[in-house]
Amino acid sequence: MAFSPGCKTLLTGSIDKTARLWRVPRPIHGDPKRVLLWTQLITGMELDEHGQVRVLDADTWQQRRRQQLEKLGGQPQP
Fold it and tell me: Which of the residues in the chain have pLDDT under 50?
């Protein structure tokens, strides 16, 4: 794994001898609770209390989007 100068691109290599370039997203700023909730909504996943990834079911995703994110002011800004 290596970052480009300026850290806008990331190069990864895999055991299967493939390489891939990734565009590094811009940092998100704002209230940590709002950023965490936004991350859960765009990935459809969350970490449980043991650090394990859990996929959000559709009802939970909708509830968080409609009720919680809107109360916090919507999507955080880069």
Answer: none
